[in-house]
Every structure is written in C-alpha cells, then in structure tokens.
Specification:
single chain; 149 residues; mainly alpha
C-alpha cells in the first residue's frame, strides 16, 4: 500500500513530467514564431505559447508546494522543439504547424493518461484547468492546420 509520502513523490514526478512537456511546448512555439515572423498566423501561435507558459508556471508552483524541485528545462522534450525548428526552416509553415499539432496531441494524451496517477488535488487541477486549456490550444492549432490545407 502506498503511503501519503509515496503518493506525493509520485505526483511530483508526474507534475514535473507535465512541466517538461510544457517547457518544450513554449520552446517549440517560440522557435516556430521566430521562423514564421511574417506569418498572418503569428497571433495564434503567440496565444498558444502564452497558454503553455502559464501552464508551466502553474505546474512549477504545484511541484514547489509539494516540496519538490521543479524541472527547469524540457529535457528530452527539447529534441522535439529542435525538430520543429528544423521543419519550419526546411519545409515551411505547413510542416511547422503540423509538428505543433503533433506536440499538442502528445500533451493532450499525456494529461489524460497520467491524471489518474496524481493525488486528488493535483488531479483536480489537471482536469479542471490544464486539460481544458490543452484542448483549447490543440483545437486552435488543429483549426490552423486545416485552414492551410
């Protein structure tokens, strides 16, 4: 049987995983914005970047509240950001938007898959705040992708 300390440790681990994903999303959006400086879709990308940045702030705060040390980099997720940057350079706007949508898919799936492994308070935060906001950014990028097709 898991103790309260084990559940807190597990929750911190998952929150930090979410945090690394959000940090990667922020990096990825910033790189895409830089590469598509003249794009009429820049505003949508900037809104999504701000949303991911706010989620990263909330997650870092939750990790600290539980006595953990928040992740300060995207770690392996940073590789995805580099791929998007390369895609935007080599293949253009459509490829970059498609890669952003793929990242949004992954973030959505991670939240859904791991929400049940959290303590009750963190689970409520994920379900009430983070997943709806993830859905909003996913839908915005998905709509943008379909408008470019």
């Amino acid at each position: 049987m898991q103790t309260g300390k084990d559940i807190t440790k597990q929750t911190v681990h998952h929150l930090n995983s979410f945090l690394r994903g959000e940090l990667s999303a922020v990096e990825t959006y910033r790189q895409a914005i830089d590469k598509m400086n003249e794009s009429p879709h820049r505003y949508t990308l900037e809104q999504c970047a701000r949303s991911h940045s706010e989620r990263a702030r909330v997650l870092a705060e939750e990790v600290r509240r539980r006595g953990g040390e928040p992740a300060d980099s995207s770690g392996a997720w940073g590789t995805f950001a580099k791929l998007v940057e390369g895609g935007a350079k080599a293949f253009g706007e459509k490829a970059a938007i498609a890669a952003l949508e793929e990242g949004e898919d992954h973030g959505r799936d991670d939240y859904r898959k791991e929400a049940n492994d959290l303590d009750a308070r963190a689970q409520q935060l994920v379900e009430a705040e983070l997943i709806p906001e993830q859905k909003r950014t996913h839908d915005a990028i998905s709509a943008l992708k379909h408008s470019l097709s």
